[in-house]
Design brief:
Distance between the termini of chain A: 63 Å
Helix content of chain B: 25-40%
Strand content of chain A: 5-15%
Number of helices of chain B: 14
Order of helices and strands of chain A: HHHHHHHHEHEHHEHEEHEHEHEEEEEEHH
Largest sheet of chain B: 8 strands, parallel, barrel
Mean pLDDT of chain A: 95
Shape of chain B: globular
Strand order of the largest sheet of chain B: 3-4-7-8-9-10-15-16
Structural class of chain A: alpha/beta
Number of strands of chain B: 20
Strand order of the largest sheet of chain A: 3-2-1-4-13
Low-confidence stretches of chain A: none
Oligomer: heterodimer
Radius of gyration of chain A: 22 Å
Largest sheet of chain A: 5 strands, parallel
Shape of chain A: globular
Number of strands of chain A: 13
Helix content of chain A: 25-40%
Strand content of chain B: 15-25%
Number of helices of chain A: 17
Distance between the termini of chain B: 59 Å
């Protein structure tokens, strides 16, 4: 067994390493920041948001001390306003669109203001929305991630009976299992989900459609079915040594980290993360934060080709992670466990010294059951439909699907 | 370096900035500290028969993240014995002979009481006396303060009493809580006042606690109207100072008061006729140290424009305050947007469209071109877009020259003079149909 890197860190240090990367604003700071907002007309931040949260409106409400109203504006547009405040790539969405950028200033801290308002209602358990009077219609939702639960939330408000089927033991999808721990904890993700479930959504966890229950049953028993089951496993490398102990895929690594005490997650002393997307960054930084002495991104193409967001790259650099570009993995070395990673570089074959390999090559499509997407009762959304995007995209698609279902079923 | 030395109704001081009568001028220690830091003069916190104050006294109005944009108080005059105040005034004057030390007085409306108070004050060596005829709260219920200053006859009468014994300049402090301040100013002049100071605070309720329904500042759940001051009141004060300064029946020195926080505020008062400028709220907010930039900023401004003494700038704006009917109707302005500076917030558009004259054309975001453009033919040159624009110098008002001689309403309505063509006034919907 290789020595556990995490064992070298104190509990305090581990707590610090995984603490909130963007701590909440104080009330004073929030007020100051809210007053900086220009209250643009037809605001570009709102346009940039896939759920089109009326950003100036919610910020103005913070400025006037109407935090409950502010949270209502946010969560009405985006049922996952809590998690989006923590995990949204705002640099390329609302904050990137802020007109203050054009004045060579820092944009308004929209994400932190959104968190300020949504934390207010979450911490006080303020119920902002109610289920509508029952309309006698039933909708099945497959997958309790942001897409499915956004769909469920709006359908409940309009009076539909909603049953959500979830294969995992906990709802929330990647919000619960896949967001970097320093951005959002499962506690927050589950509290946000609970808010939606409290509208009277029936949740059935541990049920895999296609295995425990045929998809056709849903079509027979419900007036509509929304499928938001996300994506499947991490794509495999297809190189020798992939089965060696010490090779783990990024999502499994992150899920384990998020569902166990920090110390219980195995991490090597020298970690190689294969891939350069945002999940790869989450893996390389969290391996480092768990105590890895060296945590390195290994990417077959150049720096400029990295698919991760620039600020995620910056974060990994600040965390002290390393980067190997133009290095295509060809073989994982080792007899009983990982001892190195052989890569093909412009200068020939090289070996990266490592005792753990995390693969982050994107996820495969799900294939548990065939989804008849052209069936009039069926709608799809979230990562399952998009091939992988942000929470905010999933929320927008879930809401759109709810609106479409409502429109169709109201007509019939 | 500009010479800021000031002679106000015969009172000499190193610069025109005085502390106004109020909490900052309550004690020897405060006034001495202020003089050490460079204040030109101080009007002592109003002296009279000592009063008893309530505990909760001040309230304020914030604007955005700016604290104390407006400020109010229900504090009364000095709660210290008259002899303590007079002793300290004498001591300050002895130790700071070059600075202006003014005693503010308020006593009951009896001739003998005023005579005695004025004489005792003069014995301190004070440079002048300010009669507090302006305090709008508390004291007015007892027939003093603004209860005097709101009635021209009372004002005149008491000034006469004071002048019967006064050997030093008498400044009458006016209340803004009247329909026309010039009537009171003239009454003070008639009574023999040597100078005027204005404005005292404005009657106000600063807010309501929405949990308890208590007005603010709350005294055991209740409040009383108080005196409003701070930056919010400056425009009102500028107007009233200019009204008095422009009144040919007044013609005595004026000490300007009301919302002065910066040298610019002070300079504005001076150009509108103020000989000295009094400051209170800004000191209550930031302390005496603000005098450094008050003096430095004023002197720098004067140096940059070649004004050597305050006499060269005092009152320069007064003749430019005219009646509306004297304004030139043919002075044609339109807004111009510097598209390179525009950050596309579209505040100008919504302001003009909803709040003014529908003279801005908005283009869809992401079209690559400008976000907003002025419809010059519809622009009435009102300034609103330039006022709301958050980028300095992005929207400017440009004069459109024309061949029409100036004409004002007086002349035009009398049938003389020709109007230049006006901006077309229509809604953008109509405009869109024109294309």
């Amino acid at each position: 067994m290789p020595p556990e890197a995490a064992a070298t860190l104190s509990d305090d240090q581990l707590e610090r390493n995984f603490a909130d990367i963007a701590p909440p604003l104080t009330a004073d700071h929030a007020l100051l920041e809210a007053h900086k907002c220009l209250f643009c007309y037809d605001a570009p931040c709102t346009i940039a948001c896939p759920t089109h949260i009326d950003v100036p409106a919610f910020i103005k409400k913070i400025a006037t001390g109407n935090l409950r109203g502010s949270a209502r504006v946010i969560l009405d547009a985006n049922p996952f306003g809590h998690s989006c405040a923590r995990a949204c790539p705002v640099e390329v969405l609302c904050e990137g669109a802020c007109v203050l950028n054009a004045r060579d200033e820092q944009p308004i801290k929209i994400a932190l203001l959104q968190r300020h308002a949504t934390d207010y209602v979450l911490e006080r358990k303020i119920r902002l929305f109610q289920a509508g009077p029952s309309n006698g219609k039933q909708v099945a939702i497959v997958g309790a991630g942001p897409a499915g639960l956004s769909c469920a939330r709006d359908l409940r408000r309009w009076g539909y009976a909603v049953t959500v089927f979830e294969a995992k033991p906990q709802p929330g999808g990647l919000n619960t299992y896949g967001i970097a721990e320093y951005k959002m904890t499962p506690t927050v993700a589950l509290a946000e989900v609970q808010d939606i479930l409290d509208l009277g959504v029936e949740l059935r966890t541990g049920v895999t459609i296609g295995r425990d229950l045929p998809f056709e049953r849903l079509l027979a028993d419900y007036d509509a079915v929304f499928v938001g089951i996300g994506l499947g496993l991490t794509k495999s490398l297809g190189i020798p040594g992939e089965d060696l102990p010490g090779v783990v895929d990024a999502l499994t690594f992150i899920e384990h980290l998020k569902t166990h005490p920090y110390r219980a997650t195995r991490v090597g002393r020298r970690v190689a993360v294969i891939g350069a997307g945002n999940t790869a960054i989450d893996a390389v930084t969290q391996a480092k934060r768990l105590g890895a002495e060296r945590s390195t991104i290994v990417y077959r193409r150049s720096e400029a080709d990295m698919p991760c967001f620039l600020y995620e790259y910056e974060l990994a650099k600040v965390d002290g992670c390393q980067f190997r570009f133009d290095s295509k993995p060809t073989r994982i070395l080792g007899s009983s466990r990982v001892e190195g990673l052989e890569v093909e570089t412009p200068h020939g074959l090289e070996v990266i010294d490592c005792d753990m390999v995390i693969t982050a090559l994107g996820q495969t499509a799900r294939d548990e059951f065939r989804v008849p997407t052209d069936h009039p009762k069926v709608l799809v959304g979230g990562d399952y439909a998009s091939g992988g995007a942000e929470i905010v995209n999933a929320a927008a698609e879930g809401k759109q699907a709810a609106a479409t279902i409502h429109e169709r079923l109201s007509r019939s | 370096m500009a010479d800021l030395r000031t002679n106000f109704a015969g009172i000499q001081c190193p610069n025109p900035f005085w502390l106004a009568s109020g909490p900052p001028t309550n004690t020897y220690g405060q006034v001495a500290r202020a003089f050490d830091l460079g204040w030109g003069g101080a009007v002592w916190k109003t002296i009279g028969e000592p009063i008893i104050n309530v505990f909760s006294r001040y309230g304020s109005v914030d604007l955005g993240s700016t604290r104390m944009m407006g400020f109010n108080n229900i504090e009364l005059i000095s709660d210290r014995p008259i002899e303590d105040n007079l002793k300290e005034i004498a001591e300050v004057k002895r130790n700071y002979p070059g600075h202006a030390v003014i005693a503010s007085l308020m006593v009951e409306s009896k001739r003998a009481a005023w005579h005695e108070m004025v004489k005792r004050t003069q014995d301190t060596g004070a440079d002048g006396i300010e009669l507090n005829f302006g305090c709008p709260h508390g004291m007015s219920e007892r027939g003093m303060g603004s209860a005097v200053g709101q009635v021209p006859d009372y004002t005149c009468q008491i000034v006469e009493w004071v002048k019967e014994v006064a050997t030093i300049p008498v400044i009458v402090k006016l209340t803004p809580n009247v329909t026309d301040v010039t009537y009171i100013a003239r009454a003070a002049v008639k009574g023999g006042a040597d100078a005027l100071s204005l404005i005292n605070t404005i009657n106000s309720i600063v807010g309501v606690d929405l949990d308890t329904f208590s007005p603010l500042p709350s005294v055991a759940g209740k409040s009383s109207h108080g005196g409003y001051c701070g930056p919010a009141v400056k425009p009102i004060a500028l107007h009233l100072v200019s009204a008095v300064a422009g009144d040919p029946n007044v013609r005595i020195p004026i000490s300007g008061i009301g919302g002065v926080a910066t040298w610019k505020d002070g300079a504005e008062f001076i150009t509108l006729g103020a000989g000295t400028v009094q400051v209170c709220t800004a000191v209550m907010h930031y302390g005496f140290r603000i005098i450094e930039d008050l003096v430095d900023g004023l002197a720098t401004w004067m140096d940059e424009r070649g004004h050597r003494t305050l006499d060269e700038v005092r009152g320069r704006a007064v003749p430019k305050v005219v009646k509306w009917e004297d304004l030139d109707l043919n002075y044609h302005l339109v807004a111009a947007i510097d598209q390179d500076k525009c950050i596309r917030c579209e505040l100008c558009w919504t302001a003009c469209e909803d709040g003014a004259h529908q003279a801005i054309q908005r283009h869809p975001r992401g079209n690559g071109g400008p976000a907003v453009e002025i419809i010059e033919a519809a622009c009435v040159g009102c300034n609103l877009c330039a006022e709301v624009c958050p980028v300095q110098g992005c929207i400017t008002m440009q004069q459109i020259p024309n061949d029409f001689p100036a004409v004002n309403w007086k002349a035009y309505s009398a049938g003389t003079g020709k109007l230049a063509p006006r901006s077309e006034h229509f809604h953008t919907a109509t405009w869109a149909n024109k294309d």
